C-alpha cells in the first residue's frame, strides 16, 4: 500500500460535518470527544435521509406501487452495502435491527429458545458493555443456564489463558466485545474464535466500537455473529446490524412475531419467512438502513488503516499529555488499543471534570460507561473518557488538555 493511500486530509473531512462548526457555551469552539457514545454524521448521510423522506418514502416489501418498489429496492440495496462492508457471504446473513443492544437481545433470546437448557454455560468477559451481559443473564434466568466470565488484568486486557479453563462440554456460546468502550482495548477475537471452534462453540462479537476504527471482515474472523450500531459509524440512530452465519440463523426461531416475518398465518399454524426476513418483524427503519448504507459508503472511501493510524496518534498524544499532568491515572493501558482514553484524576470527581470541560466547549463522557464490572475491577465508580473519531485533530487534543488543566486547578485549589 502506497503512502498516498495512508494519508487523508482531516480538515477536508471536518468540512463534511456541519455540526463541528457549532459554537457552544458562549461562542466556544466545540471539541467533540464523545464519539464512543455516538459519532457525528457527514452531510451526505443527513442529505440521504432527508431525500428519502422527501422523495421516496413508502413502506417496503408491500410492493403494490411504484414508490414501494423503489423504497424496497433502496432498503435491499442497503443490505447489500452492509454485506459488502462486513464481507458476509450473502445478504441472507444480514439482519437489520435497532442497534447493538437489540442485536444482542435478538441473538440471546432466539438462541435460548431451543438451543439452551439448564446447566448450559455462556461465556462473556469482564469488560463487556452491559448490553452484552444483561441479555445473557435474562436468558440464563429463564433457561437455568450459567454465565461464566473471562477476567481482565490491570492493563485492561483479557486474561486469555483462563478461557481454556472456562470452556467445558456444557459451554454453548461465547460472546465477546471486539473493542472495549471504556478501555479502548482491542481484543484478540480471532484467537478466541479459533479456540471456541475447536470445541464447536459459536462466538458472538460485539462490534459496536470496532467497525469505525479497525478493519472488520466476518469471513476472515470466522465469527458466528457480529453486531454493530449505525450511529457509531457516522450513520443514523435506531439502525444496526446482526450478521449471523446462515447455519445458525436457520436453526434459531424468530425473535419477534408480526408482519413481514411470516410466510403463512393460520390460527392452527404459522410458517416463517426466509432469511433474513424471519428476524425482521414489522416495518423496519427504512430511512435508517438507507442512511447507514450511505455512511458505510462514505466511510469506505478512506483507508481504514489510515483512520486507525490517525486515531492511534490521537490516543498516544492525549495519553502522553495527560501523563505530564500530575495525579492522573489512565484506566486501560492495553498494548493493543484504539480511539479511547479513560482516566481519573486525584481529588477531582470525573463528573466535575466533565462539567468543567463542558464549560470550555469540550464534550467528553463521564460515568461507568455501561461497564460497571470494569469499574469494579479497578475499584472506581467512574472515569472521564475522551473518545476519538476520524475528524478529530491533535490541536483539539491540546485544547482538551489545557482545558483539563484549568478544571483540575480550579477543583484542586
Ligand atoms: N457495546 C458496546 C461496546 C458499546 O460501546 C455500546 C454503546 N455504548 C453498545 C454495545 C450498545 O450500543 P447501542 O446503544 O447502540 O445499542
Based on the model shown, name its key terms.
15 helices; 41% helix; 17 strands; disordered N terminus; Aspartate Aminotransferase, domain 2; alpha/beta; 7-stranded mixed β-sheet; 4-stranded antiparallel β-sheet; 413 residues; binds 4'-deoxy-4'-aminopyridoxal-5'-phosphate; 2 domains; Aspartate Aminotransferase, domain 1; globular
Give a written overview of the molecule.
There is one protein chain. With 413 residues, this protein is an alpha/beta fold. It folds into 2 domains: 3-38 and 303-412, Aspartate Aminotransferase, domain 1 (Alpha-Beta Complex); 46-299, Type I PLP-dependent aspartate aminotransferase-like (Major domain) (Aspartate Aminotransferase, domain 2). Helices cover 41% and strands 16% of the residues. It has 15 helices and 17 strands. It has helices spanning 3-6, 10-15, 43-56, 66-86, 100-115, 134-143, 161-166, 189-198, 218-221, 246-251, 286-300, 304-324, 350-359, 372-378, 394-412, and strands at 23-24, 28-29, 31-32, 94-97, 121-125, 146-150, 171-177, 203-206, 225-229, 240-244, 262-265, 270-272, 328-331, 340-345, 362-363, 365-367, 383-387. The strands form 5 sheets. It has a 7-stranded mixed β-sheet, sandwiched between helices. Helix 3 runs antiparallel to helix 11 (286-300), helix 12 (304-324) runs parallel beside helix 15 and helix 13 crosses helix 15. The radius of gyration is 22 Å and the shape is globular. The protein starts with a helix and ends with a helix. Mean pLDDT is 96; it is low at 1-6. The structure holds 4'-deoxy-4'-aminopyridoxal-5'-phosphate. The site of 4'-deoxy-4'-aminopyridoxal-5'-phosphate has 14 residues, from helix 5. 4'-deoxy-4'-aminopyridoxal-5'-phosphate is lined by residues 36, 99-101, 129, 131-132, 177, 181, 206, 208-209, 229, 370.
Amino acid at each position: 500500500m502506497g503512502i498516498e493511500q495512508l494519508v487523508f486530509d482531516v480538515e477536508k473531512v471536518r468540512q463534511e460535518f456541519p455540526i463541528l462548526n457549532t459554537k457552544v457555551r458562549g461562542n466556544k469552539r466545540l471539541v467533540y470527544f464523545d464519539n464512543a457514545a455516538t459519532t457525528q454524521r457527514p452531510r451526505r448521510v443527513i442529505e440521504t435521509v432527508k431525500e428519502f423522506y422527501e422523495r421516496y418514502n413508502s413502506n417496503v416489501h408491500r410492493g403494490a406501487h411504484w414508490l414501494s418498489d423503489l423504497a424496497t429496492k433502496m432498503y435491499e440495496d442497503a443490505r447489500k452495502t452492509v454485506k459488502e462492508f462486513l464481507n458476509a457471504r450473502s445478504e441472507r446473513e444480514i439482519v437489520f435491527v435497532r442497534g447493538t443492544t437489540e442485536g444482542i437481545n435478538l441473538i440471546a433470546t432466539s438462541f435460548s429458545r431451543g438451543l439452551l437448557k439448564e446447566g448450559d454455560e455462556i461465556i462473556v468477559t469482564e469488560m463487556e458493555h452491559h448490553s452484552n451481559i444483561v441479555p445473557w443473564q435474562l436468558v440464563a434466568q429463564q433457561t437455568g443456564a450459567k454465565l461464566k466470565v473471562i477476567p481482565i488484568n490491570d492493563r485492561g486486557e483479557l486474561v486469555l489463558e483462563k478461557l481454556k479453563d472456562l470452556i467445558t462440554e456444557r459451554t454453548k456460546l461465547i460472546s465477546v466485545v471486539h473493542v472495549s468502550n471504556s478501555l479502548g482495548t482491542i481484543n484478540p477475537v480471532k484467537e478466541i474464535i479459533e479456540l471456541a471452534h475447536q470445541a464447536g462453540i459459536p462466538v458472538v462479537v460485539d462490534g459496536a466500537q470496532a467497525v469505525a476504527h479497525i478493519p472488520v471482515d466476518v469471513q476472515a474472523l470466522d465469527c458466528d455473529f457480529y453486531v454493530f450500531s449505525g450511529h457509531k459509524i457516522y450513520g443514523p440512530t435506531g439502525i444496526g446490524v446482526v450478521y449471523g452465519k446462515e447455519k445458525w440463523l436457520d436453526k434459531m426461531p424468530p425473535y419477534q412475531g408480526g408482519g413481514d416475518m411470516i410466510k403463512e398465518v393460520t390460527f392452527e399454524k404459522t410458517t416463517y419467512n426466509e432469511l433474513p426476513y424471519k428476524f425482521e418483524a414489522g416495518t423496519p427503519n427504512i430511512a435508517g438502513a438507507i442512511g447507514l448504507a450511505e455512511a458505510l459508503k462514505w466511510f469506505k472511501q478512506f483507508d481504514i488503516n489510515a483512520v486507525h493510524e490517525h486515531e492511534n496518534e490521537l490516543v498516544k498524544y492525549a495519553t502522553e499529555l495527560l501523563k505530564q499532568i500530575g495525579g492522573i491515572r489512565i484506566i486501560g493501558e492495553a498494548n493493543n488499543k484504539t480511539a479511547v482514553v479513560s482516566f481519573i484524576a486525584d481529588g477531582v470527581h470525573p463528573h466535575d471534570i466533565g462539567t468543567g470541560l463542558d464549560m470550555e466547549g469540550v464534550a467528553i463522557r463521564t460515568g461507568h460507561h455501561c461497564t460497571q464490572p470494569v469499574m469494579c475491577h479497578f475499584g472506581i465508580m467512574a472515569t472521564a473518557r475522551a473518545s476519538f473519531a476520524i475528524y478529530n485533530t491533535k490541536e483539539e487534543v491540546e485544547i482538551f488538555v489545557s482545558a483539563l488543566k484549568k478544571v483540575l486547578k480550579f477543583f484542586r485549589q
